Amino acid sequence: MPYDKSLDVEAFKEIKEFEGSRITVGVFSYNAGIKKLQLGRENQNAAGEWAFSKLGRMTKEEAQAIIPVMMKAVESM
Question: Of all helices (H) and strands (E), which one includes residue 29?
């Protein structure tokens, strides 16, 4: 069965912006399944538009900002 966006329910979402990038912490439940934590990164290009990027590694500043958001997300699960 292909992915159906209408079945993906967002229970929590918070975005933290940094210089030239932002990290999104979200909790989603697909097709009434268990809630799962999702992390994503977007980078800003020269035109100021946001584009998906692999999250990979985080700086200490990013980790310190994201961990409290992740804890709030876990509480919503």
Answer: strand 21-30
Q: Are 36 and 26 in contact (CB under 8 A)?
A: no
pLDDT, one tens digit per residue, over 24-59 is: 999 999 999 999 999 999 999 999 999 999 999 999
Distant-in-sequence, close-in-space partners of 44: CB < 8 Å, separation ≥ 6? 20, 21, 22, 50, 51
Give the ranges where the chain is alpha helix by DSSP (H): 60-75
Annotated domain spans of the chain: 5-75
- In angstroms, the CA 25 to CA 70 distance is 7
Q: Is residue 1 pLDDT above 90, yes or no?
A: no
Non-local (6+) Cβ contacts of 70 within 8 A are 25, 37, 39
Give the pTM: 0.87
